């Protein structure tokens, strides 16, 4: 069975001297730019409230920059308890961050964007008040549609829009209709032993010649979080082409097994350098790790598991 290869130690950990990231750092968005990788990570302070921080890494995982202050603080009523678990995609020179805001009652999917990570603009809540997480944008239009992946438990769903403006200002009844036909827009459901409780999207889908490469997490009946991979049809991402029956990454190292939530690997970002695939993930809701693989080998093995 195909497995990602991990660096033994976390590449990013908490900094006790910085109050806003003194308890944990995990679940980073990642995107490559030239020879480095931007990471936007979830940081937790002592009261268990979250903000988003920034770091720049090289392909080996070495930290080149790490900002001493958050790039996105808790500033809206929806974010009263935290801004969490960002994913990132770039359109027309602008980085779009899909993240979740928590007010202690409801988790809402929100959108922010930036050109330089120094000035971040909020676009507000983009999915109505329903418990919804693990949301991210496909990094390219699919048949002229902008696709938002999201997760209403226990499945993974896709919402389609004409463009970014449509996402920000959909028809008044858009989400009502979407929720009423949720089965129609469901791309993946729990299927194997290690994802018996639920699944959720991980890193934004990667376009390949074989289809959309998707990393996702699965939760078993003992609440262990593992990572898997699947291929979705390029023109119709609601169709699964291939899917590993076994996880490609699971808790095994100390920082993945011991933390604020034990036994968790939670993939949220990727970067590709030549044929080297880097998968960034949160370990036990405490630290950030990276796992590697040959992209071509992964796709070859995945295609042997066609649905």
- CATH homologous group name: Glycosyl hydrolase domain, family 43
Strand-pairing-aware structural class:
mainly beta
Q: Just give the CATH class.
A: Mainly Beta
Radius of gyration equals 18 Å
How much of the residues is beta strand, in percent?
Answer: over 45%
Task: Quickly describe the structure.
This protein has 307 residues and is mainly β. It is built from four helices and 21 strands. The longest helix is centred in the last third of the chain and has 9 residues, at 295-303.
Task: Outline the structure in words.
With 307 residues, this protein is mainly beta. The strands form five sheets. Strands 14, 15, 16, 17 and 18 form a five-stranded antiparallel sheet that branches. A four-stranded antiparallel sheet has the order 1-21-20-19. The protein is globular, with a radius of gyration of 18 Å. 44% of the residues are buried. It contains four helices and 21 strands. The chain has helices spanning 164-168, 174-180, 254-257, 295-303, and strands spanning 5-6, 24-33, 36-44, 50-58, 63-66, 82-91, 94-102, 107-114, 120-125, 133-137, 146-151, 156-161, 186-188, 198-201, 206-208, 211-219, 225-232, 240-243, 265-273, 276-283, 287-294. It has a single domain (5-303), classed as Tachylectin-2, Chain A (5 Propeller).
């Amino acid at each position: 069975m195909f497995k990602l290869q991990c660096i033994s130690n976390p590449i990013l950990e908490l900094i006790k001297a910085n109050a806003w990231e003194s308890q944990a750092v995990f679940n980073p968005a990642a995107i490559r730019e030239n020879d480095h990788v931007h990471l936007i990570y979830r940081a937790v302070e002592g009261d268990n409230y979250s903000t988003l921080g920034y770091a720049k890494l090289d392909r080996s995982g070495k930290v080149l920059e790490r900002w001493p202050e958050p790039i996105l603080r808790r500033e809206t009523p929806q974010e009263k308890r935290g801004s969490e678990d960002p994913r990132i995609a770039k359109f027309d020179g602008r980085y779009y961050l899909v993240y979740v805001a928590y007010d202690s009652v409801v988790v809402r999917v929100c959108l922010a964007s930036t050109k330089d990570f120094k000035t971040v603009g909020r676009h507000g809540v983009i999915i109505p008040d329903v418990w919804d997480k693990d949301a991210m944008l496909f990094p390219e239009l699919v048949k002229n549609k902008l696709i938002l992946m999201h997760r209403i438990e226990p499945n993974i769903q896709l919402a389609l829009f004409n463009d970014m403006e449509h996402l920000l200002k959909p028809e008044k009844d858009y989400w009502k209709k979407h929720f009423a036909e949720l089965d129609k827009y469901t791309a993946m459901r729990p299927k194997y032993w290690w994802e018996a409780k639920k699944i959720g999207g991980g890193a934004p889908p990667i376009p390949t010649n074989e289809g959309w490469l998707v990393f996702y997490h699965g939760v078993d009946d003992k609440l262990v979080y593992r990572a898997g991979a699947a291929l979705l049809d390029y023109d119709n991402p609601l169709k699964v082409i291939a899917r590993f029956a076994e996880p490609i990454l699971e808790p095994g190292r100390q920082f993945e097994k011991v933390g604020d939530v034990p036994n968790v690997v939670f993939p949220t970002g990727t970067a590709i350098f030549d044929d080297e695939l880097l998968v960034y993930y949160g370990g036990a809701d405490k630290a950030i790790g990276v796992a590697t693989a040959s992209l071509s080998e992964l796709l070859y093995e995945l295609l042997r598991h066609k649905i």
